[in-house]
Design a protein that fits this description.
163 residues, mainly alpha, Hypothetical protein af1432, 9 helices, 72% helix, 0% strand, globular
């Protein structure tokens, strides 16, 4: 139920920005799928999915404040937004801190800290590659640098067979 309520809150948060809404929904779907295929423990799966839902919470602020939503700017601005945003969901402190950490590092590819971090990077890239219409060489480079989960690599190969 927490995931559904958080998704609903994020949809309201984005105030009709279909791109932002569709983006986080797709990232969440890929993260959930990869996590399930990788047989994550339930508690880790939940942290991953909640982080995927809110991973781009700083985008509207960054576009307004800086004129763009570059990854490092999102990572810088996310924590201050997340703490009050997530407060009503009464998550255990350890879970809350991990969600915040993941969101504040979802563009940091080195070092990767845990399979949940790896999966969030992979899921976000699967969506960003499509939305940004990245060329095959850029997809290959990111694959070689970041993708490590068998499920993520299979999905990437199936979605981008030209790579």
């Amino acid at each position: 139920m927490v995931k559904a309520l958080l998704i609903e809150k994020m949809i309201r948060f984005y105030e009709g920005s279909r791109h932002d809404i569709e983006h986080f929904l797709k990232v969440h779907a890929y993260a959930a799928l990869i996590g399930q295929l990788e047989a994550l423990p339930d508690d880790l799966q939940e942290k991953l999915e909640l982080a995927a839902i809110v991973h781009d919470i700083a985008c509207p602020l960054c576009r307004q404040k800086y004129g763009n939503a570059a990854g490092p700017l999102q990572e810088k601005e996310s924590e201050a937004l997340l703490r009050p945003f997530l407060a009503e969901f009464n998550r255990p402190p350890q879970q809350l801190e991990r969600i915040i950490w993941l969101v504040c590092h979802h563009h940091t590819t080195e070092p990767v800290d845990g399979i949940d971090h790896r999966i969030l990077l992979e899921a976000d890239f699967l969506v960003n590659a499509s939305e940004g219409q990245l060329p095959a060489e850029a997809i290959r480079a990111f694959r070689d640098k970041v993708f490590r989960t068998p499920a993520g690599m299979r999905l990437l190969a199936e979605i981008y067979p030209e790579v």
